[in-house]
Specification:
Helices cover about 45% and strands about 20% of the residues. A hairpin with a 3-residue loop joins strand 11 and strand 12.
Length: about 230
Amino acid sequence: MNTLLFIEDDDGIRLALRLALEDEGYTVHEAVNGAEGLAALREHDVDLVLLDLRLPDMSGFDVCRSIRADTITPIIIITAQTDTYDMVAGLEAGADDYVTKPVVPKELAARIRALLRRVHLHEASVAAPASARFGDVELRREQGIVLKAGEEVSLTKTEYRLFCEFADHAGAVLSRDQLLERVWGYEYLGDSRLVDAHVRRLRLKIEDHPDDPRLIVTARGIGYRLMS
């Protein structure tokens, strides 16, 4: 049974979604603000965090960055229906996915299942080759790490899966839809901005010049390619 942490200050939303997620078989811990959420994360063994970006005591972006500084636990942010800035900023702060308000419980449960399924599949798999090098960036699958110039790069689980997907198809163009299906585990629920935000974060960590990338290059109008 997977355990979730839900950080949300709206009592009605928190109650409704907790009940819906418990019906799906999840154990749900609750927090009403950022400080309480960070404390709960330290107290409980959590498989995934649901994080509202509008909290009473601190910015949800700061909460996201704090979580990401200490753990690679998957994070799904909850943002306003029309606020593209919140979505992009939340992903760049380290979130793995997002849902918009009003939250549809069945959609949220599907996103959680997809994200956890991909995490578990990658943790259980032993793909070949065990290591691969792209310039000064090295993938070591057996250790589950990526190195740049010999130093380990701090990647989230989603960023690591994304790099593995590129490495598995080095030299080939991968469309955004392909990446959504293979990395996030779904097609119709996804959004191409999700891919773009994670590629940008990955470039910031492995490229010498992220604004002029040489490893993960854009195939305009199609997707991305890892140069072999």
